[in-house]
Known about the structure:
Elements: E1 6-12, H1 21-35, E2 40-46, H2 74-83, E3 86-92, H3 100-108, E4 122-128, H4 134-147, E5 151-158, H5 170-189, H6 198-222, H7 233-246, H8 250-258, H9 261-269, H10 278-283, H11 292-296, H12 298-312
Parallel strand pairs: 1-2, 1-3, 3-4, 4-5
Helix pairs in contact: 1-5, 4-6, 6-7, 6-8
Amino acid sequence: MSNKPFKILSIIGSPHDGNSNTRALVEDFVEELSTAGVTCDHQVMGLGKYKIEPCRGCWACTKGKSCPVKNDDLDVIKKAMIECDMLIIGSPVYTNQVSAQLKMLFDRLFTWCHVFPLLGKYSLSAVTTANDGQKETGDFIEKMLATYGTYSLGTIIGTGAYTAGFFPQRITARKKNQKTARKAAQLIQKDTLPKESKWLKRMFRAMKRKITGVHTINYIVNGQHPDMPNPPKLMVKLINSIRKKKNVPWDDTVKLSKLMEFELRWWKDRNWLKAKSLKELIEAEPVSTFEIKERLLLELANENNTVKNNERA
Length: 313
């Protein structure tokens, strides 16, 4: 571990900010990390203070276009996620799931679910509840952290968190989570990632199948691409067989080839199309012109290009 402070970003789904029991749980954990020897630079983003508009389901982001939803704080949050060393995502249990505020953030990061944008970062999920729903909520956050490519240190839980600012079992929760904090500190200090979680393994397999399918449909429609490897022959045969069996019109096949353009270009430019494991993803060298941050902040890049083009005109 370098001498620089370890940058932790905590995104808290509670609308209560300072009175959030989830925030209290996370802050206690980070204090335990510090006690165990990790010099932490901790930034907390409570979604009660940040404006996130709901996703409109337009699919513009998958086509490399600017998101039509403007005037909210999504890009501020995205920048912080890109720049942190460790991402903590926490939520109170609301009707056996994450809060609406956190769900809106996940939905707006739709394309991120397919490209492992934070591959190799540490992460942690945090859940508070009165007495139920913690497993479902924790599993969902863990799954989302896996889609971003993070290596999770696990889930910390605080029960007996009844209403905002009323968390009588906070000390008990802190003591229970000390062991996780100490293990996390050891890994961070050694600059060693934890083992791949079941969710991370599962999401790699799911995304590999999905992107291979997208790549194959593009190959069927457009032919061999000079900058891409050919898809597996078996996959070409399988998709053509399904198209024939289901009587899929050629026009619909062409439309399918245009879906997820952003994701396919990402996998191509990261040299991931042939990768057979997460280790190969991490070790793959992207093309020389590939800029992760610029690609993930696509909306800002498109807006800036539009302004520049207008100025030239």
